Every structure is written in structure tokens, then in C-alpha cells.
Amino acid sequence: MLPSTASRPATAHTGQTKVPGLFVGMLRVFEHNLISYRRMWLTLASGVFEPLMYLLGMGYGMGSIIGDLSFRGDVVTYAAFIGPGLMASSAMNGTLFDTTYNFFFKLRESRQYDGMLVTPLTIGGLVGGELSWAVARGAIYSAFFVLTLIGLDLAEPLHALSAWPATLLTGWAFGAVGATLTSYARAWTDFDIMELIVQPMFLASTAFFPLTVFPEWAQSIVWATPLFHAVDLTRALALGTAGWSDLVHVAYLVVMGLVFGVLARRRLSRLLLE
């Protein structure tokens, strides 16, 4: 006769620390995306071409007309000026693509998230895993830019490498925003509205021109946009002019990522668990 549950000896403590379910779930979602993209590596690689064409075409084409620019008291070439800005923009684009179009397809079209939540996966693990993958995708794009800046002698190697963590923060912040906004999308055409926001923000983010070229009334508007903070922080690190004032940029992006990360989790909980 089998012993009753009450009479069974308790399992001895092995002394090993258990990994929280949240992190295990994030790892599984990340692994799922990694396996899904192993045959679509060209899709990932294609994301670096557009900003690279901007860098070569505008950095050296328009750069020959514009000449050198001053950034925080240092004179730099136009290509060196826009390179870090495009690096930050590529991180934004990489994460936004994953947390908008891909996110919407899994949420609304294939209903993949419904199936994933039948497993022990929690909503926190799902959101965290998807954001981690989106950040990784943006990090791949920005890492390519680090090599480009070094290869073209547009930044010192250590300075270029120090700018890479700023793009991870950028990707996380914009990924959280993308996931939150996508949770409100009802159809593919809703993303046209998002493009009307992203494109003007990209052009006015100081990726191509200093903040001082804008009228005074517009400078405060540009300063309030998240991509400006990402671009200015990445540029300061890449060109070796970072200072304590750049902690404002860090704080802005951290708060943005935290607020929208919580909102994304709540929205998906309402959509998928209620």
C-alpha cells in the first residue's frame, strides 16, 4: 500500500537556489524567437542597410558640402556627427519593428500568445521575453554600427564600444512603447498612424543636424522627444564628450521603459487573461 501524502517524508533541501519562474519564462520566449529566426538571418541583416546608406550617402555626400560641425566644443566631421545618431535610430527601428508588426501578428492574427499562455508561462515572462528579444534585435543593428564607426575611423574604438550600452537602453525604452501601442491596435492600418509619429521624430531628432538649427520654440519640443535623448547620449559617448549632464538622458529613457513596460504588461493581461 502506498503511504499517504501526509506520511511521506519531506524532500530534503538541496541548497540550490531556484530560478524565479519569470526569468525562466523570459528565457523560453527568447529561445523561441531565436530558433524562429535561425532560417531568417537575412531579415535581421537587412535592418542595417538603410541606416548604413544614410551614413554613406549623407555622411560623405552631404558632408562634403556641409563640412565640419561643432559638438560640445569639439569639431567633428559630418559623418562622425551623424554616425552615432543613426546608430541610436537603428536600435529604435529594430525594436519597434519587433514590438509592432511582429507583436501584432502574434497577438491578433496567429493568436500565438494565447497558446503560449496555456503553458506555465506567465504574462510577465511573455512580455519580458518579447522585449528582451526586441532589444537583442536592435542590439545587433547597433553592434554593426559600432564596427562601422571604428572601421571608417569615425570614432575611437573604446568610445564607440562605450556607446553600445546606450543603444540597449534605447531599444528597451522604445520596445516597451511599441508593445504598449500595439496592444491598442485594431488593424494593420493603425500602424500608419505610428509611422506619422516615428518619421518626423526621426528627422527632427538631431540625428542629422544640431539642436541649435531649430527655432527656439521648436528646440524644447525636440528636446522632449525620446529619440533626441537617445541620439544625444549615444553621440556623446561615441565622440568621447559624455558628462554628468547626460544622466538626464539616461533617466528619461529608464523612466520611459519602466512606465511603458508596466503598461504593456497590464494591457496584455487584460487582453489575454480576462
Folded structure, characterized:
The chain has one domain (21-30, 41-273). The chain has a two-stranded antiparallel ribbon. It is globular and about 60 Å long. It has helices spanning 21-36, 41-46, 49-66, 78-109, 112-116, 123-151, 157-184, 191-203, 216-224, 226-238, 247-273; strands at 69-71, 74-76. The chain starts with 20 loop residues before the first helix and ends with a helix. 38% of the residues are buried. The chain is built from 11 helices and 2 strands. With 274 residues, the protein is an all-alpha fold.
Short characterization:
This protein is mainly α. 72% of the residues lie in helices and 2% in strands.
Strand order of the largest sheet: 1-2
**Rg measurement, Å:** 22 Å
Structural class: mainly alpha
The secondary-structure element order is HHHEEHHHHHHHH
Number of helices: 11
Helix content: over 70%
In the residues, how many domains can be counted? 1
The number of E-state strands comes to 2
Major sheet summary line? 2 strands, antiparallel
Query: What is the terminal-to-terminal distance?
Result: 44 Å
Note poorly predicted spans.
Answer: 1-20
Strand content: under 5%
Integer average pLDDT: 85
Shape: globular
